Amino acid sequence: MKLLIPKMLVKIMSFAILTLTLSCSFLSCTKKVAFMNSAVVPAARGTIQVKRDKNMNYVIHVDVSELAEVSRLTPPKQCYVVWMESEQNAARNIGKISSSMGTLSKQLKASVETASATKPTRIFITAEDDPSVQYPNSQIILSTDTF
């Protein structure tokens, strides 16, 4: 009878550790989504990574490359702005695209990282005259499909 209790305890502890390990790995899982091809800036490429942090917020990291300088667009603009849609909200400005050397580097690469309490369902980028604009203009430069 003494051997049954330790064996059962080992099984229960093993199951608890396995369950905890699996649930933690699902919480911190990173979802990587690519932007669709752009009709406005055909060479532009980019990806979005979304993961949960320890506070259960969604950390959104956007990387773009080959994005033309905003001053070369028709009509010219001042900056690129990243927008997030969620099931709870309409589009929300989550940041201006920037690199260490201004809006875009010489390699035309840039990124944005932010956190949100709500899960994003779509991310898109517009060219704007003001980085603090509250509503996106109608010309979308890059967009993801709904995810």
The overall pLDDT average reads 84
Helix content: 10-25%
Tell me about the largest β-sheet: 4 strands, antiparallel
Distance between the termini: 54 Å
Counting structural domains, the number is 1
Choose one word for the global shape.
elongated
Biggest β-sheet: strands ordered side by side in the sheet: 1-2-3-6
Task: Identify the CATH architecture.
Answer: Sandwich
In a nutshell, what does this entry contain?
With 147 residues, the chain is an alpha+beta fold. It has one helix spanning 4-27, and strands at 31-34, 45-52, 58-65, 79-86, 92-96, 109-116, 120-128, 140-143.
What features would you describe in this structure?
The protein is an alpha+beta fold and 147 residues long. The chain has a single domain, classed as Immunoglobulin-like (Sandwich). The chain has one helix and eight strands. The strands form two sheets. Strands 1-2-3-6 form a four-stranded antiparallel β-sheet, with no helix packed on it. It has a four-stranded antiparallel β-sheet with strand order 5-4-7-8, with no helix packed on it. A hairpin with a 5-residue loop joins β4 and β5. It is elongated and about 75 Å long. The termini are far apart.
